[in-house]
Fold each of these.
Amino acid sequence: MKIGVFDSGAGGLSVVKSLLAHNLFDEIIYYGDTARVPYGPKDQNTIIRYSLEALEFFNNFDIDLLITACNTVSAYALPEMNAQSNYPVLGVIEPGVMALENASLRKDDNILIMATRATINSKRYEKALEKLGHTNITSLQTGLFVPLVEEGIFNGKLLDATMNHYFSDIEKPKAIILGCTHFPLIGNALLRYFENKPLLIHSGEAIVQYLEARYDLEVKEDEANLKIFASDNVAGLRKIADTWL
Ligand code: DGL
């Protein structure tokens, strides 16, 4: 099976890391729209237009399945992308909610959703959790973490100050939905900040669980062949991939 992974930039490599670790595919084609990242502060129509343009890129490859690693794209563009492609396009929001449900939390446990402005405004995670009966949800736009991660800042004073800025007034969460591709990279810092050690829901691990539950996938013997493309500075993205992966 050959799959595509689409993200607004480099963050989707956190999803690729999980896909590689579970070894379910022969080939992974990654495309990061580095020329136009970030998508999180943009309007719905722009996010949909950029996502449909990314599909044109994947038309160059004979893929069986496309995963939109980007939560912002997953929140807005899946119906349009599925309507215009002849392979399934899967997002990461439904898998994230499923992973949280599998953790069997109490319905009144506090769940923190951290995501970009667009994802939070879409209320996609919130509505799905409410539908499942969750009553204690905190939604936070935490877009400042995106450029920090892009700069390779995974700990230190700047990150601590940003965590204080966002979290000093909130109830300690029992679980955190890392509703943005970049946030798994600050997972350790979040666990240091929240001493109660909340459960972290990671889009990459969630999509792997989701794929295993829905598709008849065999674990491959050889590691997947990964090809990385970008709309700008592909060498820079490949360098980040060397470090992250
Ligand atoms: N990939 C985006 C997401 O997961 C984060 C970066 C951006 O704003 O484009 O929502």
Amino acid sequence: MNLYKNYKFLKEEIRKLKLKKNAIILAHFYQLPEIQEVADFIGDSLELARKAKETDADIIVVCGVYFMAETAKIINPTRKVLIPYYKAGCLMADMATKEEILEYKKNNPDTFVVTYVNSSADVKAVSDICCTSANAVKIVEKLVQNGIKKFLFVPDKNLGSYVKEKIPKDIEMELWNGYCYVHDQVSKEDVIFYRERFPKCTIAVHPECKKEVRDLADFVGSTSQIVKFVKQTTSDIIVVGTEEGIIHYLKKIAPNKVFYSLHRRFICDAMKLITLPRLYNCLKNEMYEIRLDEKLLEEARKPIEKMLKLS
Ligand code: 13P
Ligand code: SF4
């Protein structure tokens, strides 16, 4: 069987298995085109979490990285949550551990810990609140309005510095030294290259990019915010400053626009570990299941629920 026929067969089998097992497939924007095509819902981290919370499917398959599947399990613990490949881990999520956060809290008991969802369940469980890139500014602004003046932002120093720029200068915010290797590799030279090559282009970047990149961009936003921006902009040439999987989605919603990736290898290797054969295997054999103990589920749920309430 050639690859095309094989993929066609797998897509049909995946659709049949979804119906038979009352399963829902939630996919992140960075997923491979063939995964996006069989997904029931495509979204950013916040939207995937919301969808996982409200679904009445018996099985939730998360096509994304491990923390996204963990988040789905934490907020909808009675469902079977599966990820097609257990090694699809976000490298930034590994840059902070529960022990490190507990140690920090011991030395800084009056600091409020805001944790990006790109983190492990263990780290979430010892955090005061979670946020995603779509709501980070809003969440911190609300906390400031409630009188909180001292924060630690974990683990992304770039998203943290973006949030810090948006809040009053007298608010203290310490940044963890984590970063996304995919976004952090982009430099201002990449932006300048496109500005010179296409003077009429519009450059939209994710806040996980460095400040020098954000400062030169036309728009900064989470993946879903970039999608919204593309829908309403009149610009015909858009340079995308986030993982290139999103370009497949953008081309579908704006087929007359031209898209370029801001970096020659804007690829999250973990996201690309989710393939069609692995998704098929996942649904057929109901693996790999996310299992977390009751206490951890309960503790990690609190900061996520707080986030969902505030955003
Ligand atoms: P979004 O929440 O904007 O989709 O970002 C998730 C992510 O992992 C970015 O690298
Ligand atoms: Fe993690 Fe970066 Fe991949 Fe997003 S793009 S999942 S932050 S490694």
